[in-house]
Amino acid sequence: MNKLLLPIFVALVAQVTTFTAWAQEAKGDAQKGEGKIALCIGCHGIVGYQASFPEIHKVPMISGQGAKYIASALNAYKKGERKHPTMRGIADSLSEQDIADVAAYYEASGVVAGATASSKAPEGSAKAMALVAKGGCASCHGDSFNKPIDPTYPKIAGQHSDYLFVALKAYKTEGNPQIGRGNAIMGGMVKQFSNAELKELAQYIGSLPSELKTVSQKKFK
Fold it and tell me: Which of 30, 103, 159, 181 yields a CA-CA distance of 20 to 30 A from 111?
């Protein structure tokens, strides 16, 4: 490499490394996050609100969801790992600090102090339980599906079944610029199921006791 360019290259690498480290360590502030959710509440702040893309389904409940998962999901939309035009546009408008603050806000939103969740989800039909076992769902999302083994994984118990079905199918979608999710683990898991089986799985998980909820904003009450 040209000796004159080497110091510039080293400086650029140092700047990128510093920025990456800062982004990874961004601390979320729930109070600040409350002032940054204007683009979120139009869908996630209305109980029962339904989206029409890529098909009609209830938007996911995100109040009570883990902050690191919310941040991971938003960054996946920014990177194009999750394909959804509206969500990518919203994610692109947020800085890393904005994402951390919004995630912290929703993690704390609607949480009831002292509430305890069961350690194991109640069983469903024999067919549903066979599908859960085949997919190994509890190995990542926990026995209650409310306590994932990694904070970047979502709580899924009690999430809207129709949303879960759409999300699961998205991991099977390839080559579509507007629909799909790129995740090797989830992609491998869902591709062993038919859509009918994914719907059965989603219905069981959606029926479970949940820590998730939709917290209505004052303007929508």
Answer: 181
